[in-house]
Amino acid sequence: MTGAEERAYTTIMTTMDRLHRKGLLVREKDGLAWRYTPALGKAEFEKALADGLAAGILQAHGEVALSAFVDATAEVDEGLLDQLARLIAQRRKGRR
After folding, report:
1. Does residue 96 register a pLDDT over 60?
2. Which sequence ranges are marked TM in the entry (predicted)?
3. CA distance 77 to 80
């Protein structure tokens, strides 16, 4: 390997290790090497990402963010407002 290839390999392995420590990758020993796989499926990852973004925005901006979200929902698709109302009703029913 040339110097550039070695640096690229170590950079990749450092990145993979960091993703493992953050819980985004699962690793298992395979001989002398590590075998990495995603910790979450695509849908699970997207849900976790959306949950984190929504929570952060709501914590930072509260009622203003909530109002903006409802307005944006209506602008994208009026039918989504009905779906939002159903999700709210389901959540409230589940907490009782």
Report:
1. no
2. none
3. 5
* Mean of all residue pLDDT scores within the chain: 92
Question: What is the C-alpha separation between 1 and 6, in angstroms, rounded?
Answer: 6
In contact, 49 and 60? CB cutoff 8 Å: no
Q: What per-residue confidence (pLDDT) applies to 4?
A: 62
Residue type, 36: Y
Exposure of 45 in the CB half-sphere (CA atoms within 13 A):
9
Burial class (CB in 10 A: 0-12, 13-18, 19+), 96: exposed
Residue 7's pLDDT is 74
Residue with tokens 């907490």: 95
Q: What is the 3-state secondary structure (H, E, C) of 40-94?
A: CCHHHHHHHHHHHHHHHHHHHHHHHHHHHHHHHHHHHCHHHHHHHHHHHHHHHHH
